[in-house]
Design a protein that fits this description.
The complex is a heterodimer of chains A (about 180) and B (about 190). Chain A has about 180 residues and is an all-alpha fold. In chain A, about 75% of the residues lie in helices and about 0% in strands. By secondary structure, chain B is an all-alpha fold. Helix content of chain B is about 75%, strand content about 0%. Chain B is built from 10 helices and no strands. Classes of the chains: A mainly alpha (about 180), B mainly alpha (about 190). At the A-B interface, helix 2, helix 3, helix 5, helix 6 and helix 8 of A face helix 1, helix 3 and helix 4 of B.
C-alpha cells in the first residue's frame, strides 16, 4: 500500500478528476478491500465484484470525501456497506447455502506447509462464517484492518459501544472455536 | 479491584493488538483463570495471523484494475446519456407547456371565458382593422413574443389585461411603434 502522503496526493488528484491517479489508488488498495469483502462473503466472484463496485462508488462520490477521516476508512466503509447489503439480499433469497461455494485459497511453498496453510485458512474461514454479519464486519475491520473502534463506529454508523460488543462477542467465539479445534 | 468478567472483556477487546491496561495486567498477576483465558485468546489470534490475509486465489491485479476502469467508463457514458436525455426532456416539456398553454388560451377565448364584453368594447374597430393588416409583418419585424401576444390578443378581440404588466418586455422601438400606430391606452 502507498504511504499516507502519497495516497493523499493521489486522492487530491483524483478528486480533481484525474482518472490515472484513481487507477493507482485502485491498484494500491485493491488487496485490503478484496480481503475484506472476501472474508465477509467467502465467495471469490462476489468478493471481487463487490470490491470493484466499491471502487466505482468511491470514484463517483469522491467529492463527498472531505478528508476528515482517512481515505482507507472511507473506502472500507463503502465496501462494508456494499457487502452488508449483499449479505442481506443473499440471506433473503437464500435457499441454498451461501457458503457452499468452493473456497479457493492462495497457498504457496512446500506441499506440507501448503496443505497446512490451506487447511488453516479453511478453518479460519469456517470460523468467520459462524459470525453474524455485524460481528463479522466489526471483527474484520478491527482485527485485520486495525481500525480504531471509534472509526469503525463512524464508518458503520453504529455506536462505539455496539461495535465493541460485536467485536468482543466475535473474539469470544474465536476463542471457543480455537479450543474446539485444538489450536495451540 | 477489577472483576474477572471485566478483565476478560478487556482481553477480548485487545485481541487485535494494543497494550492491556495496567489494572488488567495487575489482575492477571493474581488470577490464573484470566491468565489462561488470555493465553487462549492470544493463541487463537496468532493462528488467524498465521493464516494470512485470506485473499482469493489467482487475484489478477491488472484484470481487476481494468475492470474497474471499464465500469467507470460505463458509468460515465450512462451519466452523459442521461444529461443528453435531460436536455431533450426539458425541450420537449417546454414545447408541451407552450402548446398546452396556447390551446387552453384558445379554448378560453372561444368559449368566452375571458375577454368578453369589457375588453371587446375597449377595442376600436379602426385600430383592429389596421392591426390585422399589419399584424403578420410586424410580428416578423419585431420578433418579440410579448409584442406578438399583445397584437394577437387585440386581433382576437380580447381585452389584454396583463399587457400593462408586460410593457417592460417591450423594446423602445416596439413601444414607439405601438404609440405611433395605435391608441396604446385603448389597446391595453
Amino acid at each position: 500500500m502507498l504511504r499516507d502522503a502519497a495516497l493523499n496526493e493521489l486522492v487530491e488528484r483524483a478528486v480533481g478528476g484525474d482518472k490515472a491517479a484513481f487507477s493507482r489508488i485502485v491498484r494500491s488498495m485493491m488487496k485490503p478491500v478484496v480481503a475484506l469483502t472476501y472474508r465477509m462473503t467467502q465467495d471469490r466472484e462476489s468478493a471481487i465484484d463487490l470490491a470493484q463496485d466499491a471502487f466505482v462508488a468511491a470514484w463517483e462520490n469522491l467529492r463527498s470525501f472531505r478528508g476528515e477521516g482517512k481515505f482507507e476508512s472511507w473506502l472500507f466503509a463503502i465496501a462494508s456497506k456494499k457487502t452488508l447489503n449483499f449479505l442481506k439480499q443473499k440471506a433473503v433469497r437464500r435457499s441454498e447455502d451461501l457458503y457452499e461455494d468452493e473456497i479457493e485459497l492462495t497457498a504457496e511453498g512446500n506441499p506440507e506447509t501448503e496443505l497446512e496453510t490451506k487447511s488453516l485458512r479453511e478453518e479460519v474461514l469456517a470460523f468467520v462464517k459462524l459470525l453474524p454479519p455485524r460481528q463479522r464486519l466489526a471483527f474484520n475491520l478491527r482485527f485485520y484492518q486495525q481500525m480504531p473502534f471509534d472509526e469503525i463506529a463512524r464508518v458503520t454508523g453504529a455506536a462505539v459501544g455496539t461495535v465493541k460488543t460485536n467485536y468482543r462477542e466475535a473474539v469470544r467465539k474465536l476463542r471457543d472455536f480455537a479450543l474446539r479445534k485444538g489450536w495451540r | 479491584m477489577m472483576t474477572c468478567r471485566e478483565c476478560q472483556d478487556e482481553i477480548l477487546l485487545h485481541a487485535g493488538g494494543g497494550i492491556l491496561p495496567a489494572e488488567v495486567l495487575q489482575h492477571l498477576g493474581s488470577c490464573p483463570e484470566c491468565l489462561r483465558f488470555r493465553q487462549d485468546v492470544a493463541s487463537a489470534a496468532t493462528r488467524l495471523v498465521d493464516a494470512g490475509p485470506l485473499l482469493p486465489d489467482d487475484l489478477d491485479e491488472d484484470k481487476f484494475v481494468s475492470e474497474v476502469e471499464r465500469r467507470l467508463e460505463q458509468a460515465a457514458s450512462r451519466s452523459q446519456t442521461w444529461i443528453g436525455r435531460r436536455r431533450y426532456v426539458a425541450a420537449a416539456a417546454a414545447v408541451v407547456l407552450v402548446v398546452g398553454a396556447s390551446l387552453i388560451g384558445l379554448w378560453m377565448a372561444r368559449s368566452g371565458r375571458v375577454g368578453t364584453a369589457a375588453g371587446f368594447e375597449a377595442t376600436g374597430a379602426t385600430t383592429q382593422a389596421s392591426l390585422s393588416a399589419l399584424f403578420e409583418d410586424e410580428v416578423d419585424r419585431f420578433d418579440n413574443s410579448v409584442f406578438e401576444l399583445i397584437l394577437s390578443d387585440f386581433v382576437a378581440e380580447r381585452h389584454f389585461e396583463a399587457g400593462g404588466l408586460l410593457l417592460d418586455d417591450l423594446s423602445e422601438e416596439e413601444l414607439r411603434y405601438l404609440e405611433e400606430n395605435f391608441d396604446v391606452g385603448e389597446l391595453l
